[in-house]
Amino acid sequence: MIEARHIEALTNLLGEKGLLTAPGDRAAYETGARYDKGRAAFVARPASTAETSAVVAYCVQNGIALVPQSGNTGLVSGSTPDDSGRQGVLSLDRLTAPFELDRVNRSVKAGAGLRLSDLNGKLEDTGLFFPIDLGADPRLGGMIATNTGGSRFLRYGDVRRNTLGLTVVLADETGTVLDLSSDLRKNNTGVDWKQLFIGTSGAFGIVTECVLNLEPAPKQSATALLVPSSPEQVATLLVAMEDALGGYLSAFEGMSGNAISAALDHVPSLRNPFQGGIVPDFVILAEISRSTPPREGEQPLDAVLEEVLATIWERDDAPLADAFVGPPHEIWALRHALSEGVKHSGRLIAFDLSFRRGDIMPFLAHMKAEMPEHFEDVTICDFGHIGDGGVHFNLVVAKNDPRIADPDFEADLRAWVFSVAVEQFGGSFSAEHAIGRKNQVFYDQYTPEKIRELAAGLKTITSPATLGAITF
């Protein structure tokens, strides 16, 4: 616990609605999206950049550690406090202003506490959208802090690519407000400072406002479920689709049969689209889209997709075993239900990995062969973004498995998976979930010493006080 005088001072800065201290009020901010739970000294909820600056300055001056929290949808214990009861949570949930659309510049200035769904809801009538497609509904500040990518990274890129400017509060004694809110797309006048705060888990500063690039919303789309003739042919199929479709290809998502079956078992609203109800071992969700409305005489996208798939089907190397062209809303409903289905299948131990695109399927084949030898009765339910090299490598253990109570079991399992991914396949242990307490040991292990020294130096320059759940 922290002293009562600090609670009184913070209440004076934020008002009663801006500071939560009762256990019941704090509970939602202390519990993460995936099992992690801590205990906060308080939850600060500033409603402006100025209030954020004042709170941060007070906490730095009085040695109070802060954990910034956005939508609290992260999976690596990066947004929740530890169990000491001495860390304060600084929530972005009231930082929903401003909202300033520049239609000509195709950009928007928005508060970091605005949820992704609310942002795109406000943009619905403009013909524009923020093109990061996620199963969760995070707030913008957290998306920036973790540099999220999502299912349409293949076409639109990640948050880093779509961020034009930021307003950031630094964790120093004055709560310095750093105005990096330029909405220029080209500005080569020196270091691009905003990049320091994208993908660094909130440790370098707290984003309170952002200027984001917007894209024309798709007016037409077509989707298909593709069954590759073998795991080895997935890469061939991806290249063939890119060669034939170019910029039309907006998604190329991989889904294991185990993950699909879990979704069908636990999400009753889903329809099983596979012949005879038999789920293949591995399925690709492919999407093509146009941002223009249909024109007279223009070939419909369903026909374009069917034509391309027919051509690929006839190739001598036969990368395609089967295909189902279907309604986009039904096919995407299956993809977006995977996380929910896997979560209800047992105790979930989740990994967010990335590889060179050609190494994804060899990695998955290696793990399916080796898992029973290292960890019995662990089910692999993988899915992910094959088009950009990302894999949500989910492992499920039965809910009554006694190993769940042994903290060494999960630690050993994580260490083994990361050693294979990083050391044998040259991958990353964090594709887009960033680094929280769960990944701290692996950041320390796999990040070269000189890089860690540089990162620590930048942290000292920007926010010398304790900020966030990771130590750079």
Give a summary of the structure in a few sentences.
The protein is built from 15 helices and 19 strands. With 472 residues, the protein is α+β, with helices and mostly antiparallel strands.
Q: Assign the structural class, choosing from mainly alpha, mainly beta, alpha/beta, alpha+beta, or little secondary structure.
A: alpha+beta
Q: Quaternary arrangement of the chains shown?
A: single chain
Largest sheet: 8 strands, antiparallel
Number of helices: 15
Blueprint of the fold:
Elements: H1 4-14, E1 19-20, H2 23-30, E2 40-44, H3 49-61, E3 66-69, E4 87-91, E5 99-102, E6 107-111, H4 116-123, E7 128-129, H5 140-146, H6 153-156, E8 163-169, E9 177-180, E10 206-213, E11 215-216, E12 220-228, H7 234-245, E13 249-256, H8 257-266, E14 282-290, H9 301-313, E15 320-326, H10 328-336, H11 338-343, E16 347-354, H12 360-374, E17 379-380, E18 383-385, E19 390-397, H13 407-424, H14 440-446, H15 449-462
Parallel strand pairs: 2-4, 3-4
Antiparallel strand pairs: 1-2, 5-6, 6-10, 7-11, 8-9, 8-10, 12-14, 12-15, 13-14, 13-18, 16-19, 17-19, 18-19
